[in-house]
């Protein structure tokens, strides 16, 4: 879509020019009276609070999907499809966990994603390392409602991340481009 050059205003000064483009959003903007009490953010927060009872179910579904992807790998090996599904399931948990109130599960899923992304050969990753991540995510989702589990889940996620980083640093010792990524801080929300 080409812009109409007549809508662009150019003011010339002795030492500079000021170019003003039209704001196309002005056409779709709706002015609201100050007495209008509609607050879209408050409406969104209210809707989110109404859905919060579903968060546990959603996280359970995502954790089960991760377990199913891992079971497919154990049964059929590290095929491209199986590895991609394992990564997608872990990545979805990493992205959704903090929103759904499971930040420790997000941290464990982030650690698993890093293993999948940075291991030279996924088949050479100790199977216990992947299984521990999946079991931790399952336990965090299942036991989150108990008050004493939050600190334990946080400690478990940090420990898994440490073990995963240690493995990845050793596995990538001859691949400096990967070491830089392995040593980078996590982008997943922390507790």
Description:
- This protein is mainly alpha-helical.
- The protein has a domain at 55-183: Four Helix Bundle (Hemerythrin (Met), subunit A) (Up-down Bundle), CATH 1.20.120.
- Helices cover 62% and strands 4% of the residues.
- The chain contains 6 helices and 2 strands; from the N terminus they run E-E-H-H-H-H-H-H.
- The protein has helices spanning 40-76, 80-96, 103-118, 127-143, 149-171, 176-183, and strands at residues 9-12, 17-20.
- Strands 1-2 form a two-stranded antiparallel sheet.
- Helix 3 packs parallel to helix 5.
- The two termini are 46 Å apart.
- 23% of the residues are buried.
- The model has no long low-confidence stretch (mean pLDDT 84).
Short description:
This protein has 191 residues and is mainly α. The chain has a domain at 55-183: Four Helix Bundle (Hemerythrin (Met), subunit A) (Up-down Bundle).
Task: Identify the CATH architecture of the domain at 55-183.
Answer: Up-down Bundle
Unreliable runs, pLDDT <50, ≥5 residues?
none
Tally of DSSP β-strands: 2
Spatial ordering of strands, largest sheet: 1-2
Count up the helices.
Answer: 6
Q: Quaternary state, please?
A: single chain
What percent of the residues sit in helical stretches (DSSP H or I)?
55-70%
Secondary-structure element sequence?
Answer: EEHHHHHH
Any idea of the CATH class of the domain at 55-183? Mainly Alpha
Helix/sheet category: mainly alpha
Here the CATH topology of the domain at 55-183 equals Four Helix Bundle (Hemerythrin (Met), subunit A)
Percent range for β-strand residues: under 5%
Q: Gap between N and C termini, in Å?
A: 46 Å
The average pLDDT value, as a whole number, equals: 84
Measured on Cα atoms, how large is the radius of gyration?
Answer: 24 Å
Biggest sheet statistics = 2 strands, antiparallel
Shape: extended
